[in-house]
Amino acid sequence: MLVPIIVLALVAILAILAGAGMALRAGYQYGREQNKARYEELLLAEKETNERKLMEVQTQQRDALHEAREENARFRSTMERENAERRSELQRQERRMQQKEESLDRKVDALEQRERKLTATERRLEQTYEELEHLKRQQLSEIERIAQLSVDQARELLLARIEEQVRAEAAQRVRLIEEQAREEADARAREIITLAIQRCASDQVAEAVVSVVPLPNDEMKGRIIGREGRNIRALEAATGVDLIIDDTPEAVILSGFDPVRREVARLALTKLILDGRIHPARIEEVVAKAKQEVDAVVREAGERAAMEANVHGLQPELIKIIGRLHFRTSYGQNVLAHSVEVSILAATIAHELGADVNVCKTAALMHDMGKAIDQEVEGPHAIIGGEVARRFGKSPKVIHAMVAHHATESEPQSLEAAIVQAADAISAARPGARRETIDLYIKRLEALESIANSFTGVEKSFAIQAGREVRIIVKPEEIDEFAANRLASEIAHKIEESLDYPGQIKVCVVRETRSVDYAR
I need a surface site. Which of 177, 262, 318, 506 has the fewest CB within 10 A? Predict the structure, then answer.
């Protein structure tokens, strides 16, 4: 019974296998047909793509060919146009060359004709020259026969007469040139000096020999003197300056030969008056500070003077010595301002005369330097200044110009020394630069009276008591009692604004009424 079952099973398995094989075969056949269909579709699509690309390539070839033909046509047209222009330019150049050749031919013909004419003229001139030479020989022979002189004798006689005339004319011309040179030299010298003075327009201030310190009141004089005079002795010992305390109202006079010490004393006394503490210890402290301030002022004054005179390369110690001239006066003229003025004048004159400008302006600035230390060293200030300049390494030309600026210690041996001497004389001789003390005194009195007389109603005025009081007489018919008081106040205010003076000035207005009658 198992055998039929196995047989059936095998049959069934075989049937299944046969069915599966048929199915596989059918599937393989179907897949093959599908693949063939897809392959045909791909071939068709690729064929269409290739045909489209071929058409595009053919279109591009046609366009490129068309553009190439157009570019070729444009290039051919351009080349033809350029060739035509070149041909036209060549034709124009040929015509110009032909015209030039024709012009040259005409010029050559004209030159040949001119040469022929010149040749003929030259032959005629030679013939005429020969004729003139023949006539000249005949005339000379005739002149020798008439004058009974040979040619050489006549030549010597003529030359002698001409030489005599020329000598006379030369002597006259020399005299004229000498006179003209003298006139021009004088005019040129005046022009140079005038130009130098015009360029140097510095102001000069006349300074007093003594210094006056104003006081707030006369009681301050006692405090300055101190108990048994200890304060005034301490101040005089510390500064080396004499203090003059007299009847001058509200003022103390400082007297001393050294202007720097006098300035130190003035500053110290002014500070002590403002401070109010006046005793020997305080005096020494204030004097030390005043010396420092004066040293600073001296240095600044020297630097400013060197800058104004445009002089460079001076040592600091030399600048300090020059700065001390700020406190020195000569006949009322500030020596430092005078030195700057002389330097500017000397530089201007040196420019005009072609001298060494640097030597002139340096020597002129330092020419009075010896006056700053002549209280400490014996000898003339020119010699002292020359020694100081030599010690600081200045050139021999500068030293000589400094020493010879007065021509008493040494005669000027160079143009620069003469220029410095002339500039010094110009600055000192300028009107108003220097004044005597009596002139200052008289001018102050005249200024007081002039101010008083400038007011309406003043009949006359008098400056009395060395200028410490001005007495004014008014017209009583124009000035009453109240107007007199007002006039005194106005005149005092005008004096304060217009004048510089020590102490105070008393203004006294006098109004006098007189009644006159006669008994008959």
Answer: 177
